[in-house]
């Protein structure tokens, strides 16, 4: 993979820290804003990235890379991914894929028409612990209840309460608890159960954005609650309950630190299948192979997953009366 990175924020620096363990990924370019040019050029020098840009159109004229990693603020995902696809580049897009389900459908159509890889960088779907969780769930009888709680007091919440609206809490930029952290819970559940029958979102709204909320997903005989909070904290874990036992996911749903199985009669066992400590390693290792193989069957399967997630998100946002973008 010959890669260009759009963005210079925290997630980009997290990714760049593991590229030493992914020699198959060649860092060809990084693009940031003119305002962040000094920061972008510092990152370029530190990680020996071949070129840096402050203009997307100028960047996309380059033939030095074949793939773009879109890691800009949420509200820019759609427009930046579309420009990259139009320029004939494969796209790896950070979560949430887009702010609206229709935008993702538009990107999908463009990518498939051009025979380009388009995937969402959503860590939990590619972690080895997730594969283990899926197998463990098959052994706890008939599923009944799933509860996911990812609640983490935001370092930006105090400033938000005082009137400083940073991207994490800005509705115009696709902020809020649902889009930021609860979306990992949604991906986990969709990866296990697929599309729900009904969606409801009970959100705490401040300054027109959800600072926390409970998302209810109805799968008929299985009831799911996804809790995401940026204005309060609790033990971060998820519990999957069946008629013959339960599976406990230890830690946030974006890292799946480990999981435990607890049969109705028997001892608790804890498992951790990670080969690499960083949550982003497995997804980018696989994305590189998908692009190398032009595995469009994989692409279509993952897009179907992402479309379900976006439909849930859109239904939840509408249910809570939140206006994004």
From TrEMBL:
PANTHER family: PTHR43054, SCYLLO-INOSITOL 2-DEHYDROGENASE (NADP(+)) IOLU. One of its GO terms (molecular function) is nucleotide binding. Residues 2-118 form the Gfo/Idh/MocA-like oxidoreductase N-terminal domain. Pfam families: GFO_IDH_MocA (PF01408), GFO_IDH_MocA_C3 (PF22725). This is Gfo/Idh/MocA family oxidoreductase. It comes from Enterococcus avium (Streptococcus avium). Residues 134-247 form the GFO/IDH/MocA-like oxidoreductase domain. Gene3D superfamilies: Dihydrodipicolinate Reductase, domain 2, NAD(P)-binding Rossmann-like Domain. InterPro entries: Gfo/Idh/MocA-like_OxRdtase_N, GFO_IDH_MocA-like_dom, NAD(P)-bd_dom_sf.
């Amino acid at each position: 993979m010959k890669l260009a990175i759009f963005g210079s924020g925290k997630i980009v620096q997290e990714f760049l820290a593991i590229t030493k363990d992914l020699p198959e990924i060649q860092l060809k370019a990084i693009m940031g804003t003119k305002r962040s040019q000094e920061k972008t050029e510092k990152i370029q020098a530190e990680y020996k990235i071949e070129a840096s840009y402050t203009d997307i159109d100028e960047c996309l004229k380059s033939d030095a890379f074949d793939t773009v990693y879109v890691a800009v603020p949420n509200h820019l995902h759609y427009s930046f991914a579309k420009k990259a696809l139009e320029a004939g580049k494969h796209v790896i897009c950070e979560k949430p894929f887009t702010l609206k389900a229709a935008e993702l459908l538009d990107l999908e159509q463009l990518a498939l028409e051009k025979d380009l890889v388009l995937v969402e960088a959503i860590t939990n779907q590619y972690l080895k612990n997730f594969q283990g969780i899926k197998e463990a769930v098959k052994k706890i009888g008939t599923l009944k209840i799933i509860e996911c709680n990812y609640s983490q007091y935001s370092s930006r919440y105090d400033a938000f309460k005082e009137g400083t609206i940073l991207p994490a809490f800005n509705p115009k930029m696709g902020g809020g608890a649902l889009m930021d952290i609860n979306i990992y819970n949604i991906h986990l559940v969709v990866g296990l159960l697929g599309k729900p029958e009904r969606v409801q979102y009970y959100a705490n709204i401040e300054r027109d954005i959800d600072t926390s909320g409970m998302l209810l997903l109805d799968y008929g005989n299985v009831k799911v609650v996804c809790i995401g909070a940026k204005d309060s904290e609790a033990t971060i874990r998820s519990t999957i309950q069946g008629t013959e036992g339960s599976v406990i996911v230890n830690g946030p749903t974006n890292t799946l630190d480990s999981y435990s199985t607890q049969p109705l009669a028997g001892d608790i066992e804890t498992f951790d299948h990670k080969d690499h400590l960083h949550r982003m390693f497995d997804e980018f290792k696989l994305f590189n192979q998908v692009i190398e193989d032009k595995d469009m069957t994989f692409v279509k399967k993952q897009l179907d997953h992402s479309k379900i997630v976006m439909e849930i998100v859109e239904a939840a946002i509408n249910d809570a009366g939140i206006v994004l973008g």
